[in-house]
Model the fold of this input.
Amino acid sequence: MDWKLLGLTFVTVFVSELGDKSQLAAIALGGSSKSARAVFLGASAALVLACFLGAWLGGGVGQLFPERWVKAIAATGFATVGVRLLLSSPEPATEANPK
Done:
């Protein structure tokens, strides 16, 4: 097993999930239910499944296309999302348009 890749993957996913909407949903469900264990197990199973599908599909895409193409497509996708977020600034709140 590649321990360096395992550690990098753990840190990347852990940091990216902090404060994510899935964590906020788990907090809300945990606070409104009587079984925090059930919320933990459900959220954990969902994250494991989502990561499994991502790794599995990523492995398949990696076999179909050269690594350079996959990285270029991912970079283009992230850049597009970033530019769209920057350009879609919310309207400032005014007295006629309170938010």
Q: What stands out?
A: The helical segments are 3-17, 21-32, 36-64, 67-87. The CA atoms of residues 62 and 68 lie 10 Å apart.
